Every structure is written in C-alpha cells, then in structure tokens.
C-alpha cells in the first residue's frame, strides 16, 4: 500500500482550495481486483466489437455478462458488465498492465478516478489514492513540478459524465461529452447546480484527527453516521454508528447516537449466537459475554441497549489501543455508557492477555472481532496468532460448556479461508458458518456432544427468525435471506450434518 504524505483535511464548501494531483502511470491496477464490475451499454459494446474485429454476438457472449443490481430506490434491474478473467482477478481486456481496447474503453473507465464517490471529501480522495499510484498527495505549497494539479471545478464534467453513464443511459463517452457542452451553452449554471446538489447529498466532516486515527461525521443520502478509521489503512472503517443529530461544528457537544441498529453486516452476524444461547432451558443465569477487539464499542453498547440485565448480565469489552479507547469515550458515547450501565467493563489489553487473566470465569459468548492491521499469509482478520492452537485452547478454557466462540474472518482467497478452517479444526470440531460478501463468520460450539449428533441448521435458523431482538434490531433474519448459513464440521471428524 502506498504511503500517504499528509493527514486528511476538511474541504471548504466551495472547494476552491482543492488541488487534485493525478497522472496515469498505466500500471493497470484500476483494472484488477476480484468482483470488478465495468458497466457497458449497447453503443459501447458495438464500439468494442469494431475495435476487436469480432461479431457483435460473439463479443457479447465472450466478453460481457448480465448481472442484477439495485437502483437508488432499491428496485432490481439488470445490467451489462465486462467479464473478468476466469480467476476473477482482472478485466478480461487487460493484457499485462495495458488495456487492449484503450481507445474504445467504456465511459466508466475513461472517467476514472473522477467518480463522485471518490471526491466527496479529502478522506475519500485519500482512500482512492491508496488504490491508484497515479494520485499524488501533497501539503499545500509542496506540489512537485511534474505533478499535474486539477481544481475541483476542472473535474466536475467527468463526474457528471460518470453519473449519467451509471444511471443507464445508452450513450458513448464522446456523445455524452458533446451533450454536456450543448447543455452548458443552454444553461450556464448547470455545473454549479450539480456541485451544490452533490455537496447537499454527500459530505464528510473531520471531528478529530491525529497521526494515528481520524473521526469523521458522514452524510450520505440524508443518512448521518460517525466513523473511526486508522490513518495507515483508511480503506477499512474500524467503527461506525448512525447519529440522530449532528454536533455543532463550533462546539465539542456529542451527537445523539442511534443504537437501534448496526452499520456493519458482520456486527449483525456476530449477534446471531444470542438467539441460540437465550433459548437454552439450562441457562438459569444471565449471559456473560466478551468482545475481543471492541474498537469504539459499537457492538457492546448495541447489545447492552437491547438486552435486559436478566438476559445479558455482564459484558467485557477488550481493546488494546489506548488511543482507540480515548476516542471511544470522547466521541462515541462510551464514557456516558460506563456511568450508565454497570454491566459494561472496558479492558485495555490484548485479547491474549485478557484470556490468560480469566480465572473461574465461564463466558457464554466470546466474540473475536480483531483486525490484523496488515494482511499476513492472506489473512486480514483475525491476527494469525489468534488462530494458533495455544490461543484457541484458551478460548475453550474460558467458555462455558454450552458456550460459543464467534469469529470474524477476512481472507484474500478461498484457499486461504480453507487454511483458516484447518487451523480452527485443530481445536473445535463443530459449529456454524455464515458467508458474507467480504467476511466469513464462524460460530464454534464448545459442547461435548457425541460425534454422531447431526447439526440441524434449520432449527438454528428458526430460532433466529423467532427472536424479536434478532429480527427487529440485529436484523440477522434479513441476513439469512441473502447469506448462506451452513453447518461447519472439522474435516478430521467429518461428522454428518442435516439441513
């Protein structure tokens, strides 16, 4: 990942001070990555057919595919996109680091990196810079002579062309460009109106920033959130929560946080075991839970908000970063929560140290939501050390006999995910697995059932759907509509399962 030269800044409403430095290096990185989707319309497909000297039907069959997407109103529609290579690692037209149809590439490609979502704020431009080596970041006044600097107004036409193209219009880049020129002659204020509408719908404000972390208030399509990011990996949002009322920019007043729901699908998924634990007949005491990697305590405070003391009696939030803990208390409502709810206890230590210190404790739910910081052997979460038998056996030691270990796993490939499962199988023999678009969540059981006992996945799903907490607040039942919950069994034992 490219090192960023400066910290992010608040952009003024006019953006007059903004200078965007970009020169394409022809590295081809914008054409790589799994899940790439380049929209193409019929006219662009015809241009590609001419450029490749292929019959139109052959080009469509071999180089494009039809996918289903949702529009801004949530309505499903079909869309034509360029195919990826069979390994899903790059665009089918990329040869080495060069585009084989460069002069006839679609509008989506021509307008990169000037997409509206990249230019909402300085933060978004930084995130884009981490993916594109052609973007340069400088302190004001430190620009290098060989770096081309554009004003915000310089790139607005490209943003507009991208927006029109993504809306589904059947025009080529050149046609859209001519239409925009004609429109400006008829309505000279059109550009300013577009910019005003863009800023009204999308904006970010820096609430706090230092060398390590940044706190942002985000406003996207009338939805306001507060997020925490580490400056050395801005593409990963560490914590995020909806806010009901934004704080005054000139005061330190804390906003009112909306804890009725969760921003991240993975946090919703990690709530799922509570549907099974709260239904246990043998559970005569309130549950005890711990979250390792609590961050700004979004998940812990959500659980305390919606589960009564009779349901959840104690929650340990473990976060080793003193910086994050200070931020959580001052900018995410944790200070007030500690004073308000005696069930919450913050531990400023690593998950490993926390577990070692636990004596005569039986956790019903242990959540492992720790990001590694840097990918190691293709694993981004959890850290490799937390997949070693020594650590996993510690989780077994502190779990109640019926306890569940819920782990958020992020890997770069299916092969690496298989390796992670092999590590888990050294200690655990059975559980459930929920496959999310970017994560895989494992729910590993600490029970002592006989090897031949099948896992009735439908029964676990039923308990989720019958739980008011799961359906109304955690919204895990909605996750089950799009994400697959399956039985997970150690390959060493190969226990039978039932759907």
TrEMBL record:
Highest rank taxon of the organism: Eukaryota
Question: Which Gene3D superfamilies does the entry mention?
Answer: Vaccinia Virus protein VP39
Q: Which InterPro entries match?
A: Puta_zinc/iron-chelating_dom, SAM-dependent_MTases_sf
Full protein name: Methyltransferase domain-containing protein
User: Can you name the source organism?
Assistant: Peronospora belbahrii
């Amino acid at each position: 990942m490219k090192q960023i030269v400066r910290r992010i800044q608040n952009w003024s409403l006019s953006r007059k001070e903004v200078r965007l430095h970009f020169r394409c290096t022809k590295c081809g990185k914008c054409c790589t990555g799994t899940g790439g989707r380049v929209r193409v319309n019929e006219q662009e497909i015809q241009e590609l057919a001419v450029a490749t000297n292929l019959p139109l039907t052959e080009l469509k069959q071999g180089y494009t595919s039809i996918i289903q997407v949702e529009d801004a109103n949530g309505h499903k529609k079909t869309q034509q996109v360029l195919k990826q290579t069979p390994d899903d690692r790059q665009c089918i037209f990329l040869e080495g680091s060069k585009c084989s149809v460069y002069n006839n590439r679609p509008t989506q490609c021509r307008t990169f990196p000037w997409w509206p979502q990249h230019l909402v704020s300085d933060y978004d431009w930084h995130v884009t810079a981490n993916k594109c080596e052609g973007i340069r970041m400088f302190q004001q006044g430190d620009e290098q002579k060989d770096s081309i600097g554009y004003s915000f107004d310089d790139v607005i036409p490209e943003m507009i062309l991208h927006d029109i193209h993504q809306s589904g219009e059947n025009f080529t880049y050149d046609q859209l460009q001519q239409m925009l020129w004609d429109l400006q002659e008829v309505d000279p204020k059109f550009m300013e109106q577009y910019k005003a509408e863009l800023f009204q719908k999308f904006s970010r404000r820096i609430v706090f920033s230092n060398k390590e972390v940044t706190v942002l208030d985000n406003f996207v399509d009338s939805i306001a959130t507060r997020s925490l990011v580490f400056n050395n990996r801005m593409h990963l949002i560490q914590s995020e929560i909806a806010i009901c009322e934004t704080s005054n920019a000139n005061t330190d007043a804390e906003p009112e946080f909306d804890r009725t729901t969760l921003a991240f699908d993975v946090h919703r998924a990690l709530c799922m075991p509570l549907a099974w634990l709260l239904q246990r007949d043998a559970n005569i005491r309130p549950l005890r839970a711990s979250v390792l990697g609590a961050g700004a305590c979004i998940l812990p405070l959500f659980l305390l908000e919606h589960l009564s003391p009779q349901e959840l009696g104690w929650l340990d939030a473990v976060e080793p970063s003193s910086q994050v803990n200070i931020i959580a208390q001052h900018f995410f409502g944790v200070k007030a929560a500690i004073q308000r709810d005696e069930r919450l206890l913050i531990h400023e230590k690593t998950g490993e140290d926390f577990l070692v210190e636990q004596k005569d404790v039986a956790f019903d739910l242990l959540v492992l939501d720790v990001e590694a910081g840097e990918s190691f052997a293709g694993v981004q979460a959890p850290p490799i050390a937390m997949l070693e038998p020594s650590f996993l056996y510690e989780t077994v030691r502190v779990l109640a006999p019926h306890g569940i270990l819920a782990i958020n796993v992020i890997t770069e490939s299916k092969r690496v995910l298989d390796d992670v499962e092999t590590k888990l199988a050294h200690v655990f023999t059975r559980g459930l697995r929920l496959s999310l678009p970017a994560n895989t969540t494992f729910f590993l059981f600490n029970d002592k059932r006989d090897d031949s006992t099948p896992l009735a996945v439908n029964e676990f799903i039923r308990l989720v759907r019958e739980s008011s907490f799961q359906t109304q607040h955690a919204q895990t039942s909605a996750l089950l509509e799009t994400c697959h919950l399956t039985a997970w069994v150690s390959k060493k034992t190969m226990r039978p399962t039932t759907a």
